[in-house]
Write a structure and sequence with these properties.
- This protein has strands spanning 23-37, 40-53, 66-72, 77-84.
- It is extended, with a radius of gyration of 17 Å.
- The protein has one domain (5-84).
- The mean pLDDT is 84.
- It has 90 residues and is mostly beta strands.
- The chain has no helices and 4 strands.
- The strands form 2 sheets. A two-stranded antiparallel sheet has the order 1-2. Strands 3-4 form a two-stranded antiparallel sheet.
- It comes from Papilio xuthus (Asian swallowtail butterfly).
């Protein structure tokens, strides 16, 4: 596809969508699920990117349950929310 700069900490440019231009994409994950039963077929897919800060890596230890939300900053609209309940080694 020719998309390379977004993965390069020195070349990535997200200044139009972030408050700082210190980010790049460290990984992109695609997940697809299909369930086929006697009553029909259900399929879903999701693609998401991990943004990283080239200035300083952050460490977050998910060693206890917590609630999380992804907000749109200008309106504080909740885009996604969830509950993390079962910390494990893997």
């Amino acid at each position: 596809m020719g998309i390379k700069d977004i993965f390069d900490p020195g070349a990535a440019n997200f200044k139009d969508i972030t408050e700082t231009n210190n980010v790049f994409i460290s990984a992109v994950v695609h997940n697809a699920v299909i369930e086929v039963t006697e009553t029909g077929t259900v399929a879903s897919a999701a693609t998401y990117a991990y943004f990283a800060d080239r200035a300083r890596p952050s460490v977050f230890n998910a060693n206890r349950p917590f609630i999380y939300m992804v907000l749109e900053k200008t309106t504080n609209t909740i885009l996604f929310s969830g509950v993390y309940t079962k910390p494990s080694i893997f």
